[in-house]
Amino acid sequence: MNIHQVECVRHLDHDRIEYLLEMWDTHAWYDRKINKGGSWRVKSKHTMTLEEKTRLHKLCDWLLSHDTVKKQFVRNKIFIYSNDQEELEQLRCAINPDVYLMSEVILDRPQHSVRSRYPGYSIRAYFKSRFITGKEKKNLLKFIKDNHHALRTNVGVERFLKNESLRTRDYFFVDFRDHRLLGILELMVPSTVRKTADIIYDDK
To answer: Could you tell me the pTM of the whole model?
Structure first.
């Protein structure tokens, strides 16, 4: 569903919602007023209405009370995955999103598992979205180089290790052949793993 600035709900914290909305609103004002070498910018600023803010807080309350649903945030979109279509319809009526689309997906794999076409891997570790220190990044790079024969990283991790960024993303993941390596990773780079999932090999 599309909701303006819905990404601020990501942390499920009402105070943070207000902080981010104010920060983004202030940034938009300065971005519009500063002359960056050309003519003065005249793009109008979108100020959040009370109704839009209330909608975001209602969504936050709903997500806090439905902690079993899966969710994915983009700047002005949120994707919610639930086994109960009726509760999703109730949410739609409560917050009245700008755009809403419901689809039904049939999953033929066990809960907390993922399918992979690469044989030999047993568990996947997803990273948290956070900033790490330079030392932690060096430890992560060393861990992956030393154990490259027993793990597989996705493209996001590969690019991260080659650039100067210190921010990991929640779509980064590493597949392991041996569960014990996951424990070593958590010792070398603490608080990096967000969740794990068993891997089901599928060559289709």
So the answer is: 0.54
